[in-house]
Amino acid sequence: MDQEKSAKRNLMIMWFANFFIAGSMTMVMPFLSLYIETFGEFSDAYVQRWSGLVFGITFFTAFLFSPIWGRFGDHYGRKKILIISGIGLSISVLLMGFVTSVFQLFILRLFMGVFTGFISTSQAMISTQTPRESSGSALGTLQTGNVSGALMGPMFGGILADSIGFALTFQLTAITLFLAAMFVMFGVQEFKVAEDTGEDDDRSYSRKEVLQHILKSPVLLMVMIVSMFVQIAHFSIQPILALFVNEIHGSANIAFFSGIAFSAAGVGNLLMAKRWGSIADKIGYEKVLLFLLIASGVVYLPGAFVENIWQLLVLRFLLGITIGGIIPVRTAYIRQVAPVSIQGEVLGYTTSLRFLGNIIGPALGGFLAGSFGFTSVFVTTTLLLLASGFSLGLILQKQPSTVKRYG
């Protein structure tokens, strides 16, 4: 099988693997707090506090371990890391079905964070197997698998939990994660596209040299930092979205309409992720990234002034269209500017910053909403996105030679 056919086959397999991983990771989200309530007679404050801790600890360990997995993947092969990650996630989730206390669940969620590098590692692998000029389109396609799974996961998780109980749902989720690892083990053929770039792609970089490469590339560094601020902005509204829906729509069918509000952004993401990647392949990744940051900020602001649920749904859909293109375009940009032998580690640092944003965002959103009201969350988020866009634009203006130099 030639490399082009292998690359297409790998992309298809990794699409399904990402679908299963993202779906499995989000299946337990709707009932995590309800699961905690089954461990004893607890106050609402206790359940809310531990729900936040149990949810957030996974991102904390993922923040610490993402660069490590990225470096291991660069040196020892990304297929091995994907298999280890899938099996590690499967074991973690399987054991969650047998816990008898909140602390046991907390420890397993912490352990689970160690293995959450599957999706970022798959991005690195597909990136290095795709010619530079079409990496945006390929990564956009891969992103649709992730988004599709994340959209379907909560719905199936809720249905399963109501039908067969929490423990069996965890066990079925673990089986799905294990299947994703098996898809990779028996279906994926790992290789790297050979390119005449003038770089020594087989050269081994120390961690210090990787960091120096990032720090000496102002645009790359800004793209990585922007990734964190995008996550802060995006996750600031996530924990309180249901409360906001309740405020503008009322309590009637609150779970249903909150779910639609969450999903609307995912649908917009799903429809445009590949398209944004293709556009960026043609006109430049920095230009598209800059546009998406500004557009996301512009779309976010009207959310502070919506008067009914339908206005919110339209804005959430538009937000998905804009903010959803940032991940594949950002990853494709790294594909252009980072040597192949360190792309996994660079993506690992980027993913680590994204997880840090996942931790800061909900805390910031909760503080702002509690102190100043929901409007402050939308305004602050808008300012973060616009500031990120203007900062990137300023760096690009000062480094004009970097724009599309790889084209």
From TrEMBL:
For this protein, what is any one GO molecular function term? Answer: transmembrane transporter activity
Any Pfam family from its record, for instance, is MFS_1
List each copy of the Major facilitator superfamily (MFS) profile domain by range: 10-399
Sorted keywords for this record are: Cell membrane, Membrane, Transmembrane, Transmembrane helix, Transport
What superkingdom does the record give? Bacteria
GO cellular component labels? plasma membrane
PANTHER family (UniProt xref): LMO2377 PROTEIN, MULTIDRUG RESISTANCE PROTEIN MDTG
- Protein name from the UniProt record: MFS transporter
UniProt membrane topology term: Multi-pass membrane protein
Q: Where in the cell is it found?
A: Cell membrane
Transmembrane annotation, as ranges:
12-36, 48-69, 81-100, 166-188, 219-245, 251-272, 284-303, 309-334, 346-368, 374-396
